[in-house]
Amino acid sequence: MSTAEAGGVFHKARNRTLDAFPAEKEGEWKGPFYFILGTDPQFGLMKAWSTGDCDNGGDEWGQEIRLTEQAVQAINKLNPKPKFFVLCGDLIHAMPGKPWRKEQTEDLQRVLKTVDRAIPLVLVSGNHDIGNVPTSETIEEFCQTWGDDYFSFWVGGVLFLVLNSQFYENPSKCPGLKQAQDQWLDEQLNIARQRNCQHAIVFQHIPLFLKSIDEDDDDYFNLSKPARKRLADKFIHAGVKAVFSGHYHRNAGGTYQNLDMVVSSAIGCQLGLDPHGLRVVVVTADKIVHRYYSLDELSEKGIEDDLMDLIKKK
C-alpha cells in the first residue's frame, strides 16, 4: 500500500502485491537502500492499559495520535527518503466488533495520509486488526480497509514477504484461508530460492520467538514451538535473512542459525523501558543493519553518520 494520493485514497496491496513497486523494475540489485519500520501505534491501548481494562477500555487515543504524528513528521524530514515505511501490525486497539473501532481507524488513516507521497506505506495485520481468532469476515474487513493481509513485493532485488501471523496462532474459524496463505508462502519461498535474490525479508506481527528458538511458549507474545520451528526452517531453507515483528511492545530478538528475528518496540504504548520509537533498517549487498531510534532522536538528529555511510556506499 502506498501513501495517499490527492483526495486521501490509499493505494492498497491487491492481488498479493504492491503497485508502488513494479516487479519488472525492482527485480535487480541496484545498491544499498533503507526503510523505516514502525509497529503497534495501537490507537487506544495507552488509556486501556493505564486503567487496567484492555478488553473494554481505550476510549481515548490522543497520545497515540500525537506520537504517530511525530513519527510521520520525523520520517518526512529524512534525506534521502526511505524506500518505504512499514507498520508491523496492531494499527488500532479496538478489536473487531468493539466500540471505538471506526473512530480509531479514521483517526489513524488521517495521520497516515500525511506521510510524504514519495514514501510508500506497507501495512501488516496484527491480532487487534483482525481478532485473536480471525474469521473470513474480520479478514475481509481488514483487506477492504487497509489492503491484502499477506502479499509480497520486490525492492532493488530484495524480496519482501508480508504475512498474516494470526494464521499461526489460531486459524480455527478460517482454516481455508490459512491453507491458502501456506500454499502462497511455499510458492514465494520457492521463488526466493530459485531466483537467488539479494536478500529475502519477512514482516509479520507476532514474532517467531522473543530471544531464542527454544524458549517456552508464553501463549501470547511468541508463536508456539512447533509453528515457530516449522516456519523458521522454511525461511532458512529459502535463504530468508531476517524476520521483523512487533507485538511485544519492547525491543527484543535473537538469531536461529543464520536467521535474525528482530522484535521492535512500539510507536504507541510501551510495556517495558524502551522509548516510543522507529527502527531504521539499512539493506546493503551483503548484510542487513538496523537500529532503533526514539521518536525524539530521529526527529531532532536524524540518522547517524555510520548508517548514512552504508546507505550512500556504491
From TrEMBL:
Subcellular location: Cytoplasm
Molecular function (Gene Ontology), one example: metal ion binding
Signal peptide region: none
EC number(s) from the headed UniProt entry: 3.1.3.16
Annotated Pfam families: Metallophos
Cofactor(s) for this UniProt protein: a divalent metal cation
Coiled coil location: none
Presence of the UniProt keyword Hydrolase in the record: yes
SUPFAM superfamilies: Metallo-dependent phosphatases
GO cellular component terms, semicolon-separated: cytoplasm
Domain Calcineurin-like phosphoesterase: from-to ranges: 69-250
Family: Belongs to the metallophosphoesterase superfamily. CPPED1 family.
Function: Protein phosphatase that dephosphorylates AKT family kinase specifically at 'Ser-473', blocking cell cycle progression and promoting cell apoptosis. May play an inhibitory role in glucose uptake by adipocytes.
The protein, known as: Serine/threonine-protein phosphatase CPPED1
Gene from which this protein is expressed: LOC100404671
